[in-house]
Write a structure and sequence with these properties.
The protein is α/β, with parallel strands linked by helices and 330 residues long. It is built from ten helices and nine strands. β6, α7 and β7 form a beta-alpha-beta unit. The radius of gyration is 20 Å and the shape is globular.
Length: 330
């Protein structure tokens, strides 16, 4: 499968108005010692799993509020107390360094690192280049990184954490979370097992929808500002071309715009994807100059009133429709 990922020039990031990453998560519930199985989740994809698997037996709290940028989250004193009082913490190591540190420092009995429940890969441009994340690249993963051709060691980032955007990998994580819940709260193990099986079945169905929906398209290449879709691209034989927003203040030169135009022509790209919470004004202006369209491809780091759906499955299906339109479904 063609999974090459080239960086669109950094200067284009500000021109596309796509420097910021979206963020958000499910509504936080009151945390602490309740009669239920208290789970503190790091951000929406983890909270969604905990809620789906925990069902009526779990009280789930998210550390990342709706509309909040998850990658740069700082943990408050109150949140540290929530972690200390919880029965379990569910997080994705390498995505939120502050969460990783806070979980490590607590005495919480059940610490569930989703990054150890599936295989993380090095997508070259797929990992975030936030300072501090590189240090988590090698911890907790036995698999060797899959380096991209043409990327020197200096250019490689930490392993890509965006596993939830691949329904197959998300299902693998769900199975691991289910087993951890069963072990931590054996009184309700049967229900956790049943809930996990139901969720995995739905995720397998979603995978089938993506496989069939993206099987025959005019192009396999899509442009996105946030290099979140490496696993999705790899799963369905697509190519993610990520825009690198290294300097949000820089303005694109005519040469940069021409380079984007050449990329689009060479690869048959029709659309520049941006995210729900990011202004599309500059993206539309630049896309017009390059003869491209704009649309939303949601990295699902959270759900807000601007999301194209109320939960993971609805937004993923909206992403599928957006990709089908942009790639030209035959």
């Amino acid at each position: 499968m063609n999974v090459r990922r080239r960086l669109i020039p950094a200067a284009l990031a500000s021109a596309l108005g796509l420097g910021a990453l979206t963020a958000c998560s499910s509504d936080s519930a009151a945390s602490g010692n309740t009669d239920k199985f208290d789970v503190v989740a790091s951000f929406y994809p983890m909270a969604f799993l905990a809620e789906q698997i925990g069902g009526d037996h779990a009280n789930v709290t998210s550390l990342t509020e709706p509309g909040q940028e998850p990658h740069d989250l700082e943990i408050s004193t109150k949140q540290r107390a929530q972690l200390e009082e919880a029965d379990a913490a569910l997080f994705l190591k390498g995505l939120q360094p502050a969460v990783d540190e806070a979980v490590q420092q607590t005495d919480i009995k059940t610490k569930i690192d989703a990054a150890t429940l599936t295989t993380l890969e090095d997508h070259g441009t797929g990992g975030h280049s936030h300072e501090g994340e590189e240090g988590h690249a090698e911890e907790g993963h036995a698999e060797e990184s899959h380096s991209e051709e043409g990327h020197s060691e200096e250019e490689e980032h930490a392993r890509d954490p965006h596993v939830w955007l691949d329904p197959v990998k998300y299902a693998e994580v769900a199975q691991g979370v289910g087993k951890a819940f069963e072990k931590a709260d054996p009184d309700h193990a049967a229900d956790y097992k049943k809930n996990t099986e139901a969720l995995v079945k739905k995720l397998n169905g979603l995978n089938g929808e993506f496989e069939n929906g993206l099987k025959n398209t005019k192009t396999k290449v899509f442009f996105t500002n946030h290099a979140a879709f490496g696993y999705l691209a790899e799963r369905y034989g697509l190519t993610q071309e990520a825009i690198s927003g290294l300097d949000p203040e820089s303005e694109p030169s005519g040469a940069r715009v021409r380079e984007l135009q050449q990329e689009a022509k060479a690869d048959g790209v029709t659309t520049v994807f941006y995210e729900t919470l990011v202004s599309d004004k500059t993206a539309k202006t630049l896309a017009k100059d390059a003869g491209l369209k704009t649309d939303v491809l949601d990295p699902l780091e959270g759900i807000t009133d601007k999301s194209r759906g109320d939960d993971y499955f609805q937004v993923m299906r909206a992403n599928l429709k957006a990709l089908q339109t942009a790639l030209g479904t035959k």
